Structures are given as structure tokens and as C-alpha cells.
Amino acid sequence: MAKTPKNIAIVGSGLVGSLLALYLRKAGHSITVFDRRPDIRNVQFSGRSINLAMSNRGWKSLRAVGIEDEIKKIAIPLDKRAMHVVGQPLYFQKYGKDGEAIWSISRGVLNRRMIDLAEEAGVEFRFEEKVWDVDLPNAKIFTGETEKGVWEEYDYDVIFGCDGAFSRVRHKMQRRSRFDYTQEFIDVGYKELTIPANADGTHKLDKHSFHIWPRGKFMFIAMPNLDGSFTCTLFLPFEGEVSFESIKTKEDAKNFFTAYFPNVMQDIENLTQDFFSNPTSAMVTIKCYPWTYWDKVALVGDSAHAIVPFYGQGMNAGFEDIYVLCELLDKSGDDWSSAFEAYQEMRKPNADAIAELSYRNFMEMSSKTADPKFLLQKKIERRFSEKYPDKWIPSYSRVTFSDASYAEALAIGDAQEGIMKQIMQMPQIEEKWDSQEVEQRILELL
Amino acid sequence: MAKTPKNIAIVGSGLVGSLLALYLRKAGHSITVFDRRPDIRNVQFSGRSINLAMSNRGWKSLRAVGIEDEIKKIAIPLDKRAMHVVGQPLYFQKYGKDGEAIWSISRGVLNRRMIDLAEEAGVEFRFEEKVWDVDLPNAKIFTGETEKGVWEEYDYDVIFGCDGAFSRVRHKMQRRSRFDYTQEFIDVGYKELTIPANADGTHKLDKHSFHIWPRGKFMFIAMPNLDGSFTCTLFLPFEGEVSFESIKTKEDAKNFFTAYFPNVMQDIENLTQDFFSNPTSAMVTIKCYPWTYWDKVALVGDSAHAIVPFYGQGMNAGFEDIYVLCELLDKSGDDWSSAFEAYQEMRKPNADAIAELSYRNFMEMSSKTADPKFLLQKKIERRFSEKYPDKWIPSYSRVTFSDASYAEALAIGDAQEGIMKQIMQMPQIEEKWDSQEVEQRILELL
């Protein structure tokens, strides 16, 4: 880590902001975290959150700063998907090999714990202080009650923008020439709902599963919380025949759930009330470059690369940013400029790769899950991978349970897809999908 | 045109803003144009401008509002490219059929004339009044000396954002959810230089040609002005071995021109002085959607779709926006909402198409012009198109000299490219490129 202690501001006290604060504080720097919102430890959760799925990259980043065990206490391991498919009994799909799991954590619960841990380590938090402007070359921050009102000016050595998809820090960088930027929304929104615990505090559904009710263009998911409840998410197009737009009344909402999710409907708490009191949120992919400004300012996490949530990697990618960045700072002594340069060069291709993988998962979910050819292909892959675990690691496992870079996961995934395309063109593949011949052909193509 | 006169604000007094003002004023509306810059009629030109190439779409839009003849007085027709290639004598490439030409106009001269014409028609211009914020649902504009200072508030019925690639109006729309936005810079910059007139006021180079000095990764162009001078543009990578970055001193600039443009060098006015006093400008492709907000706000021209200048269609595309929009308003009576909806739906695919075509021309220029295969392909296409002008309209002609939509031009261009790919794979194509066999094969593939 850099030798000379710096005076550092972090904008944003979310998961990435508080973890980065902890890393840098433990490396001996002075850290102040600004957030425009109130302290999340003192407020009710927003009702707009999807539960998190912590996987290998996330844990590795927490381990390196010594808080893995602490966080595992508030997480529940999920070793499989529970598929609630229309017209079929409930069935399970294991995520990986034995012992491999993703971990369900409530965003709010995790964020509160991380702020506690950062504060204990000596990080200063300034909540309800709104950053309106940043002077990039001089690492100054301007805060105030309103954008037009009187501003307070702060001088720092380094500023980190961990202020999420709609980052104010990035916003300032974006007005510079030669700053590439993309924000692309998908036409599907989401809404948080809740399945409460049983009266005795136990879970109403299997607590070690990620529950999915796929319905083609839309789906419902549920992830367990420690208190016996499930945080659920309804993904649904904004417009169209079956859409958020078409559900206008409590009656509409009831009819929608009765038609498509009858089995889960009676378990959802205050269904029709929450449906209208919880917001409908949009999902966006954000890409930009560069991520840094000299040795003064750097973007980390969603501010640099927001992705759609369908691979469960948003937080994991942000935590991996921090791991890589702090490792680079560690090596480069006081040369923050080189560390920042290397950080963005290393992370940008990986951020683009996980954005692509996440978007593809969305497309797969919304257009392919009903395609028998696609399902057959997945079945062949699964069979082969189980038989030859060293020769064929499925993309999902490489992303979720390995250290391999996202860019590598994308590239190998594409190569595997190329092989499967050829396999699917074999005559009578529907009949002989589990034959020796198919297996042999894959081995040849590898 | 809409029946009830509206009180309309246009942000931006550039080419698109002043033409739209003229159209709407002539349709009976009250028009105020705001611009943060001083009146261009009272200031020196910026030294950062590329001359304009008015082609069919531009003229059509001017004709419909009755100012085509007026503007032709300040334009010079160019019916050919003049190619200044290293190691070859100067040669010419006709743009199209006889009578087809693009017209060179100085951006500053045109802008001054258009503001005059709009003012004569009764448009009010408010120069040096900076728009900082827009209230979209209420069509309010906020102006003031500084962003943080006291603001003036104006109420309008409709607001148009014609404020260019870095539009403040779009900037406000962009902060809304589900607004898609992309800005992507290319790694090549440009700089304006001048070749002055001869002492007797005549042009130093052929005045009816678009002069090009292609040099692979970079190029120099010159377009004539009425006063005998040429406005020239040097396109050059920002970084790299031969780049703006590598030209640091007057000596460097002289060496660069001596090495690559010896023939034109002595004609450039104040070469080494202008090189450092004129800015180096960046080029960006901007895409966004939606372009309108209810019946209150619409983006027109670069604010909705900035493109790189390598097809000479930026202004033409903006003028065509106005033509289409005003035709729609004409048909839809007082229903501005429907007209705006139809406008963005019709123009967005065309804006995307001309962005793509312009970017491809940039790629072609920087990587393909030295490729003998590419040059041969162009030669075969030219030969065929001359012989069968009804069967093969080159993309350039369809974009530049026709009414066909940009989207159609892109699609047909792609189909033609597909055919040429097959032709180029014919054995010994290098020898028999002008044979009956090749001609026959194209006819079969069409």
C-alpha cells in the first residue's frame, strides 16, 4: 500500500464505498465518506432492493481485509436453484460441485454491518451531506443543502467516486472531452415483495435455495433472509400486454398473481398493498472510460460499470475492483498515478465482459428459456461437464466460483458456445444427445 | 402546421436552431431563440470549424421554407474529389452523375445569413443568455449569468433543444430514468487551417473540387470559400507516433508538413502560428432516446444525434429532421404530442444509420484506403455502377444525392457489400476485374 498517508474522500457509503474505506483505512490513510442519504443504520430499508448473492470474488475481497467470517454470519449459503415451473413439480438444480454455493445477504443488513466495521476501524462518515461538484485536478469536493445554495469546499489528496450508477463524480468527468459514456436501460423493471417467516421464525420455502418462478418474458425470484423471511423480486416488462403498465389496480395485481404465480401468491405479505407502495425500478447498463483522473480521482464499482442483475455479479465485481486496486496501490508505493492507470486498464475489459454476460443472461431468461433446443443444449453441456469436470467448466461456475477474469470467462464461454453450436447440428441430436458419439465429438472439438 | 399559434423557445442559434426558428415562425408561431454565445454576426469565427458540404437533404429542407436560392449565393458547387496522393499526379473522382454536386459553405457565413433570415421573418434572438436548466413537464427555461447565480425563469408552450452535441436540454432529459444515452469519441482529432486567396482574389487550387490529401492514419482536406480562400482541416490521431501529441514545437509542425504535405505546405497561411493558436478538436458520436418529452420538449439535430464528420451529413441530417418534423406538425393540427412521437420514431433509425455510415467512412479512411483489395473493390463497383446506373447506386450517391432514408441507404449498402464480398472471392479477380464474367456475376447476384 502507498507509503505516505493520504487524506482521502470517498463519495458514497454503499457496499463498495464502505469496503474501500475499510481497505484504505487499514492501510493507514485518513478516510472521510460522504453520503447524500441518511445513515442507513437509522432508517427503514427502501423497499427497492434485490437481495445480494455473494460469490467467490466477493468473499475473496472480504477475506483480504479480514472480515469474511464477520459477514458470513449474516449470509445464508444457497447451493442450488429451486425451479417453480408451470405444470411441473418443484425441482432443484445444483449450482456447482459439492461445497460450492452463493450466499444470500440482505443489501440493507450488509451495508449496515460494513459501515459499522469501517467506523470501528476509524473511518469518518458524513451522512446527509450532498456532494454537488468535484474539482478534478485539485481533488476538491463541494457539498451543500441544494445545488443552487451555499456550498462547503473540502480539499483532499484523492477522491473516490463510489456513488453508484448515477454517480455525481462520474457526471463531472463525463463533461470532459474524450470521455466515453453509455447508459442503456432494458425494457424490464423490477419490484421488491416479501414472503414473511412462519410464526415460529422458520422459512416458508427451502432456505438453501435460490427460488425461481420463470414465466418467459417475466419471472419471480425469492432469496432467504436470516429472520425467516424471503426478499422477492418480480421482473416484468414496463409496457405491453403483461406489464407493470397493465397492472393498474389492486384487482389487476391480484389477477396477475392468481394467473401466473398461484402457488406463491398466498405467501406474499401485503401483496396488493406492497405492489403499489414499493417503487418499480429500472435496470441499466452503464459503461464509461477513463475511470480515473491523474492521481486525483477514481471511480470504483457501479459508478464505473453498472450492470443488470441477472448474473448476480454487480457487488462481486465492485468488490473485486477494490481487491485489484488495493493490490496495485500496495505494489506502487506512492505512485498513485501508475496504480490508477493500471487499475483502469486491468478492470475495464473485465467490467465490459461481466456487463455482456449479465445482459446475455437477461436475454436468455426472456427469450430462450422456453426454447426446447436451448434446454437440450444446456442438458448436453451439463452432462458432459459432470463427466469431465476438468475439461468443461460451465460459464456460470467460472464466473461465480473461480478467480478467472470475467474477460476470460466470456472468451471461454464463447468458445464453448461455438462447440455446442456444432453439436446441436448433429443429425438426430434430440435422440442421441446422451450418446457416446456426442461425447466423443465434444472431446474432439475441445 | 399546427393551427393554434404557440409560444416557442429554441435553445441554440446554430444552423439547426435558426432554420427551425424560420420554419416555425413562418407557420405563425412566436419564436425566441436563446444562445449562450454572443451573436455570431458580431464576432470573429472560432478557428475550429470544418467547412460544410450541403447536399440534397439540406437543399430540400431550405427549399421548403423558401431560402434555397438565397443560400446558394454563398455556396460553391463541388462536383468531384481532387486526390493528392503521394507519388501520383493529382487526379479527380466525380461525385455522381453530371449536375450532381455537394456545395461548400463556410459554417460561420451560413450561420450569419440564417440568423439574418430568421430575424427578418420575426424571430427574436437572445444572445449571451445562458440556459442552465429546463423544467420539462412545464416547458420552463432558466437562464442566468452563472450556474450558481440568480436565474431568470421563462414560461413557454414548447421548447426545442437545438444546442448541439453537448446539449443542456438533453442533459436534463438524460437524468431521467430509462433515457438511453451514448457518447463515444474517436481517437482522431482535427484542426482548422487556411489556404488564403491569390493576390487577385482567385483560388489557389481548383475551386470546384473537394481536395483530399489521404495519408493512411491521417489526412488533410481543403474546401473553397467565396473569397478565394480554402478552409482546411487536418485530421490526425491525438496520440501515437505521428499525432497531435507528438507535434510540440513550431519546428515539429514544419517537419510534419514537410514530410507529409510538401506540396500544400507553402500555401498554408501562418502554418506554424495557426497550428498552435487554433484548437485541436475532438469528434464524438452521440446517440440517445427518447428525443421528446410529451408535447413539451424535443431535441433536433446534433443534440439528438451527433455524428463524426466523415460523410459530410451532420448538418444535412439536422435539416432533414426539421423538414420531417414540420411536415408532421403540418398534418397533426394541434396534436403536438403525436407529431413529436412520430418524429422520433421516424428519425431515430435514420439517425442511427447515418451515425453508422459516418463511422464506417472514418474506419475506411483510416485503415482501408491503403488496402489494394479495397481499392480494387471500389474500382469494380464504380465500373459496374457507371454501366448500370439504375441497378447499382453507390451508397455515397444514395446518401448524398437522393431522398432515400439513411436507414435504407445503410441496408442497401450492406446488401451491395455482401455481393462485392462474393465477387472479390472470384479466382484471379485482380486480372479479370473488368471482364464480362465479373459483370455477369454481379447481375446474377443482384
Automatic annotation (TrEMBL), chains A, B:
Q: Which catalytic reaction applies to this protein?
A: L-kynurenine + NADPH + O2 + H(+) = 3-hydroxy-L-kynurenine + NADP(+) + H2O
The source's superkingdom equals: Bacteria
Under the heading InterPro entries, the entry gives: FAD-bd, FAD/NAD-bd_sf, Kynurenine_monooxygenase
- One Pfam entry for this protein is FAD_binding_3
Q: What cofactor does its activity depend on?
A: FAD
**Where does the FAD-binding domain start and stop, copy by copy?**
8-356
For this UniProt record, give its keywords in alphabetical order, as a comma-separated list: FAD, Flavoprotein, Monooxygenase, NADP, Oxidoreductase, Pyridine nucleotide biosynthesis
* Enzyme Commission (EC) number: 1.14.13.9
Q: In which pathway does it act?
A: Cofactor biosynthesis; NAD(+) biosynthesis; quinolinate from L-kynurenine: step 1/3
Q: Under which main EC class is this enzyme filed?
A: oxidoreductase
Family label: Belongs to the aromatic-ring hydroxylase family. KMO subfamily.
Record-linked HAMAP family: Kynurenine_monooxygenase (MF_01971)
Q: What does this protein do?
A: Catalyzes the hydroxylation of L-kynurenine (L-Kyn) to form 3-hydroxy-L-kynurenine (L-3OHKyn). Required for synthesis of quinolinic acid.
Under what name is this protein listed? Kynurenine 3-monooxygenase
Organism the protein comes from: Sediminicola luteus
